[in-house]
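Protocol step 4 of 6: record predicted structures for both targets in the notebook before any analysis. Target 1:
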Amino acid sequence: MTNGESGKQFSDEELKEALFTIEDLMDQLLTPYLLLGKTAECAKYNKLLEGDGIDIGIRDKSLTQYVYDILADQLKLTPEQIKDGFEYKAVNGVPIRVKVYKRNYYFFKYPDHVVYNFGTYDLPNPFENYWKSRFLIR
């Protein structure tokens, strides 16, 4: 998985389309997820999406055989490629980065629910604590 430093900045519309794509995939997988990184910051403060991709996080315990099968079918990923997180390109070449976290971070335990761009998303809570330590999440 890359570090999210592709350099290319995408427009709000391109990122919004990619966000809807990952939302649809997570709905198919029946997997809870949280917005992370710049994506979470934009949702938290109700700003236009900006950045070099979409970032989400899922708990490692969510990786069931069903999830592996769907991701293998739709994204051609192996369980080995999925287990620590993965990245793929959505519409318009927007990178979608999925971080699989293993530790019980307290700011993921009771997520904050926000309405953003006609959807409801989960954010780390308290957000300020997550934001300070976002680069340490594994």
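Target 2:
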Amino acid sequence: MAERPGRGGGGRRGLRRKVLRRLEGTFDLARLDWRRRVPPRRQEAVLLGVGTAMLLYGLGFGLAWGAFRGGAIDEELLTRVSWLLIFPSSVVGVLTYLIGANRREYRVARDVLEHMVEVEGREGLLWRYGPLVEALGLEDETARQVLKASREGDIARVEPEDYANLVHRLHRALREEGASLDPEAVRAWEALLRQGRTREGAEGG
């Protein structure tokens, strides 16, 4: 039998802890930590881009320096070449950064999407937290779109970053000590969860 909101567990704070435990036991928060996983990969891409630009410039200047030492070009032309090499090296470095950043972000997005598909199933899951999202003041246009797609079983149309961020916004709100949950919102959430379990049981039978 489901625990009745408002009885035991320390009142509204007890409800908050109850929902928090369920959330943490359902979603892999480490996999969904978009802000933590993506910025380090962007930094790697920056280093790769800068390194590529420096390498190309060094190779070009090395060739020009060799030509200068061999008497093929004079000092004035060497100076011009050293300046001209900056632009193409920079362009290649920027392109390398963009390609590297996109590839690394794609890997995170694919991993998050795989987790989304795992937890959502055919009936959806995150949308069942809709009453809590509303009660905690987290509802905005992006949240509505994510919850709508979850409810309609079309989670593939959701941006993985939006899904991950909504789960973490909900998690942060539930972890705040001063936060409390409306028992009505918790009852609605529990009813939606039971509805999902009932459907799964009927299909399994």
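Step 5 preliminary note on target 2. The helical segments are 11-26, 34-69, 75-84, 86-120, 130-135, 141-151, 160-175, 183-204. Confidence is low (pLDDT under 50) at residues 1-9, 198-205.
Proceed to step 6 after PI sign-off.
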